[in-house]
Amino acid sequence: MVHAAMIPIALTIAGSDSGGGAGIQADLKTFSALGVYGASVVTALTAQNTQGVAAIHDVPPEFIAAQMDAVYSDLAVVATKIGMLSQPGVIVAVAAGLDRHKAKNVVLDPVMVAASGDPLLAPEAIDKLKRELFPRALVVTPNLHEAAVLADEPLAQSESEMHTQAEKIRALGAKTVLIKGGHREGTESVDLFVDENGVRRLVARRIQTKNTHGTGCTLSSAIAAFLAKGARLGDAITLAKNYVTEAIAAADRLAVGHGPGPVHHFHAHWPVA
């Protein structure tokens, strides 16, 4: 008799990227690459490719709730990644679902704008996001542009300003904050992780490539994957940053689309041509 091994399970609650490089598709690829079973709750459909977002079709909040109930009631979800939530009603539905099922290890990526510059979050939803989801998240992972909006400050120009904004976001109810510094200049990409114990720098070499579509989604889902596998948050963040750095380094091995292409989620598994 064959005994099935228990596989760690992670859930992504996010929008679909028809181009496959970001959103739900990037999350599921990341889970799979890291040896985690991925489930999904689709919050929005986007018509998008490497060149931009052509249209967004929002999923009704009650159907999002039904998806959450279906997954959480049957699957032993250990970690949940939350991405694109475009409307206030969707945010309320997701918050209620997290409470209903006592979701743990929630990684919140406050997706506001696509890499192409197209808006993905309605302005009136930002306050709702802060109030409803920040207190329910183990970690919030904004990039520099998102952090500036959340902290209601200009774009951070230094690590000191990044730290200040992270503390302001923590004051809104987030337990911990990881501000991603990938949009800054320089030879290094520096992220700052801030919790009640202070600040920690995560440094990686900056890789010269235009193929960085989906990096934010990939990082947050990698954190969720490592949490699902039993890692502590600080270790999960370090492992996730290493994974994303290698995925970016291998991105030019793929030729996908005519704009900024995706990172290579399966860099460790696919043969090098």
Protein model, in words:
The protein contains eight helices and nine strands. It is globular and about 45 Å long. The protein has a six-stranded mixed β-sheet with strand order 3-2-1-4-5-6. It has a three-stranded antiparallel β-sheet with strand order 7-8-9. Strand 7 and strand 8 form a beta hairpin. It is of the alpha/beta class. The protein has one domain: UDP-N-acetylmuramoyl-L-alanine:D-glutamate ligase (3-Layer(aba) Sandwich). 49% of the residues are buried.
Record the SSE blueprint:
Layout (H helix, E strand, L loop, with lengths): L8 E9 L5 H11 L3 E13 L2 E7 L2 H14 L2 E6 L5 H13 L5 E3 L16 H9 L5 E2 L3 H8 L7 H13 L5 E3 L8 E8 L2 E8 L9 H14 L4 H17 L24
Parallel strand pairs: 1-2, 1-4, 4-5, 5-6
Antiparallel strand pairs: 2-3, 7-8, 8-9
Helix pairs in contact: 1-7, 2-3, 3-4, 5-6, 7-8
